Amino acid sequence: MLSAERENTFLVELGQRNDCTGDSSRYYGEIFKAVGVPEGKILDVGSHDARLARWFLENGIIRNVVSLDILNLSVKEEFVRANATRLPFRDNSFDSIVSLASVPSHCGLWVPKAAVVSELTRVAKSSVIIWPAPRFFRLPDNVAKRHVDAKGITSASPNQRSVLVLDKR
Ligand SMILES: C[S@@+](CC[C@H](N)C(=O)[O-])C[C@H]1O[C@@H](n2cnc3c(N)ncnc32)[C@H](O)[C@@H]1O
């Protein structure tokens, strides 16, 4: 069992090695067309440089977003540095959680998916949007899942057109 500090260092190193910084904001419009734009207080997990908060702003969508990433990024938006496997928030702290091209499906290949899914659903009051939908993960008992086809994402591979929405019961 790694200490929290060593685990953090380990993941940051892996993130950097995997060049985990690709920009997927070109797909955001199609993702939200498929599942709807989340409401209320939103947590963007694996935000990189507050990408979702900036995208909302650029598209004239007013939302309250907290951006979270494991990397130590300096942005002017509200930002928290943390590991998605251990979110520093109480249960039900955010109306919606969004995790795009990040954990647990993409860069999260090297983080325990069940731990991430359980953390995301723990801090969400109602729903969690994950894209692309991870293939294998364990779901907490109080959560229902739906896969939504984002048909407009034509430039990506077929499995990248599936958005996973987790709803707390
Ligand atoms: C490919 S980038 C995607 C950024 C942005 N969400 C997008 O849609 O373009 C993945 C981000 O997830 C972050 N990340 C990877 N593993 C993480 C973890 N365990 N906890 C928090 N952030 C993580 C990386 O540091 C990186 O900034």
Structure description:
The chain has 169 residues and is of the alpha/beta class. It has one domain (4-168): Vaccinia Virus protein VP39 (Rossmann fold, 3-Layer(aba) Sandwich), CATH 3.40.50. The mean pLDDT is 88. Helix 4 links the parallel strand 4 (94-100) and strand 5 (124-131). Strands 3-2-1-4-5-7-6 form a seven-stranded mixed sheet. It contains four helices and seven strands. The longest helix is centred in the N-terminal third of the chain and has 14 residues, at 4-17. The structure holds S-adenosylmethionine (SAM).
Order of helices and strands: HHEHEEEHEEE
CATH H level, superfamily name: Vaccinia Virus protein VP39
Largest sheet: 7 strands, mixed
Number of strands: 7
Output the CATH topology: Rossmann fold
C-alpha Rg (nearest Å): 15 Å
What's the pLDDT, averaged over the residues?
A: 88
Could you name the ranges where pLDDT drops below 50 across 5 or more consecutive residues? none
**What percent of the residues sit in helical stretches (DSSP H or I)?**
10-25%
